[in-house]
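Researcher: Hi, I'm a grad student and pretty new to this. My advisor asked me to get structures for two proteins we've been looking at. I'm not sure of the right format, so I'll just paste the first sequence and hope you can take it from there.
Model: That works fine. Here's the first sequence with its structure tokens right after it:
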Amino acid sequence: MTIDPTTHACSPARGPAPSRYRGVDIRIDVERTPDCTFGRADLFEDAQFRGRLSIGSPDATPEDVASRLADLARAKVDIWRSVQRHRRAAH
């Protein structure tokens, strides 16, 4: 959700452009309010929603939050792929 700065006291700040990592689309949205910077990373695979990561910090910049979310999202995808490989090997 992006808040319209013309009607609210907070302003949106975009993180890195949507990216693709190991077959998963990662969409990051970061917002800054007067009290906190918060963001979310939505993960999609084959056009289906697969998960969301959210973080916030009163001290972080929007760039810091976006970077941390990107790192966490890639780590989550790495875990998914590892589990998938393990399941295929077990069958």
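Researcher: Oh nice, that was easy. Here's the second one.
Model: And its structure:
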Amino acid sequence: MSRRNWGLPTKDGPLRQARDSKPVLTLSVTMVFGIIATAFAAMSFSMARGGAPGFFQGWTGGGAIIAAGFGAWVYIFISMPRFAAKFTGGDGFSVLLWFYARATLAICLCFAGAHVLLANGPASLAAMAFCVAGGAAAAAAFQTVMTFVPVEAAGD
């Protein structure tokens, strides 16, 4: 059975140090970030549905899936170096907290940009932007769950 953990690197690094030295704070901050990300994912997809009625039907539904997938993969691409133990400077917890703050700000800005498009642009383009924001937020929420998955497989 594979011992790979997609949320954490297997080698020591600041994220593991944060989890080991401040487990309650690390879990709490990760949980709050996960809740925020989940809320933004739900709001984004709801706004996409409400802003462009019928957007998730037919061919545009495929576009919504592609946009959400794009947002998720952009988030993964941007966040992976942080979770591959390539932190620089500071203790593990402060670096983790700073990463979550920047990720939350980026998701908020993407969501706000979609709102601007909804007010000033075509509804279908705004719905696509909401799907991108929702996909990124969903990936962020999933990442917080994976952060605390044990490396050892059950039964090892």
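Researcher: Is there anything I should tell my advisor about the second?
Model: You could mention this: The radius of gyration is 17 Å.
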